[in-house]
Write a structure and sequence with these properties.
The chain is α/β, with parallel strands linked by helices. It contains 14 helices and 15 strands. The radius of gyration is 21 Å and the shape is globular. Bound molecules: pyridoxal-5'-phosphate (PLP). This is ornithine aminotransferase.
Length: 399
């Protein structure tokens, strides 16, 4: 079978809820992938930042293989000998007292929202059913009904009503708007430190620390969704560290699974996490021993290879090189670390540019029509980035 055969199968038997770039990936290693015909590409999406450690990192693969010989799934009806080690590693790495493991990112968000509502009822004494949570316009927190109930993007929410109530949406980047939206039933503010899916929207300096101050002053929780920005992607372990704006709850996912399996979690301190008691929340697969082994190895790679430093340094270089491209269609280049985007003028269709990038050995995907995100695995070397940049700038200059 060739690439076209695989695409035909996908289209014939799959729901059409994605519009992929027409490339089939059958092998991957580090920051490169190959199609069935043997063509080589740089991966500049990293599975939406889930492959920060690079494809098939040998340390993570070895941990997975070793665990496959022992035990993979126990459910939480019993203890296993890996979960505690994983939770400790995650707490040590993030600087929180407790962690609650789930699988996909949206489940981590759901867990954070449930924690905040319960905390509001049980610690703050808000009448159950009255809790509200402030979120930001342009957010992306996943695809469940709760997550799309927060969304301001019609593609995400249209015709999925009725929506989950209890959310108040304010403009992203405007801390005073968030402050003004707080009422006596507000339990939390939830934002992404940088809005990834919205097109790598970086808020003004001081926004995250202002939110931290507002939440503290008003006795409400600050929740950061670091599912896309976390684990070194932006040049820090977590994007909030740029402003010392430590949230009360952090949602984590994607790169926590080291590109091998879906692993997500929230981290928080005792006072918040203790609102969960036996039977009040859970997941069949959350905390499974295979995920625990992979999660520990995924964090070890981030630590041992100093990937936040690589992301910071190469990110500065990437933006400088791409900003030097002269094109009447490009409006701006923005990002932090190795989470970057090229924003074209309004109504520009970036899909053909993504096809041109593919022809030049670069896989990237447009978001919102006129924006292309560039987010390679953080293990990319300087030489690989130079090679990729020559191709990227060549294509961008020609659009
Ligand atoms: C910030 C953010 N939150 C949540 C999610 C949802 O994660 P998942 O697709 O694993 O449910 C994503 C996915 O892109 C994301 O970028």
């Amino acid at each position: 079978m060739n690439s076209q055969d695989y695409i035909t199968l996908d289209n014939r038997y799959g729901a059409h809820n994605y519009h992929p770039i027409p490339v089939v990936i059958s092998k991957a290693r580090g920051c490169k992938v190959w199609d069935p015909e043997g063509r080589e590409y740089y991966d500049f999406l990293s599975a939406y930042s889930a492959v920060n450690q690079g494809h098939l990192h040998p340390h993570i693969v070895a941990a997975a293989k070793a665990q496959l010989e022992l035990v993979t799934l126990t459910s939480r009806a019993f203890h296993n000998d890996k979960m505690g080690l994983f939770l400790k590693k995650l707490c040590d790495y993030t600087g929180y007292e407790k962690a609650l493991p789930m699988n996909t990112g949206v489940e981590a968000v759901e867990t954070a929202l449930k924690a905040a509502r319960r905390w509001g009822a049980e610690i703050k004494g808000i009448e159950n059913g009255k809790q509200n949570i402030i979120c930001a316009a342009g957010n992306f927190h996943g695809r469940t009904l709760t997550a799309v109930s927060m969304s301001s993007d019609p593609e995400s929410y249209v015709n999925y009503g009725p929506y989950v109530p209890g959310f108040v949406r304010v403009p992203f980047g405007d801390a005073e708007a968030a402050r003004a939206a707080i009422d006596k039933n507000t339990v939390a503010i939830l934002v992404e430190p940088i809005q990834g899916e919205a097109g790598v929207v970086v808020p003004p300096d001081g926004y995250l620390s202002a939110l931290r101050k507002i939440c503290t002053e008003n006795g409400i929780l600050l929740i950061f969704d670091e599912i896309q920005t976390g684990f070194c992607r932006t040049g820090r372990r977590f994007a909030w560290q740029y402003e010392g704006a430590r949230p009360d709850i952090m949602c984590l996912g994607k790169a926590l699974g080291g590109g091998i399996m879906p692993i997500s979690a929230i981290v928080a301190d005792h006072e918040i996490m203790d609102v969960f008691t036996p039977g009040t929340h859970g997941s069949t697969f959350g905390g499974n021993p295979l995920a625990d082994a992979v999660g520990v190895a995924a964090i070890e790679v981030l630590e041992q290879e100093h990937l936040e430093e690589n992301a910071y340094r190469l990110g500065e270089h990437f933006r400088k090189a791409v900003r030097a491209v002269s094109s009447p269609k490009i409006r701006l280049v923005r990002g932090k670390g190795l989470l970057n985007a090229v924003v074209f003028e309004e109504n520009f269709d970036a899909y053909p540019a993504c096809l041109a990038l593919k022809e030049n050995g670069i896989l990237a995907k447009q978001t919102h029509g006129n924006i292309i995100r560039f987010a390679p695995p953080l293990v990319i070397t300087e030489d690989e980035l130079e090679d990729a940049l020559a191709r990227i700038t060549g294509v961008l200059a020609s659009v």
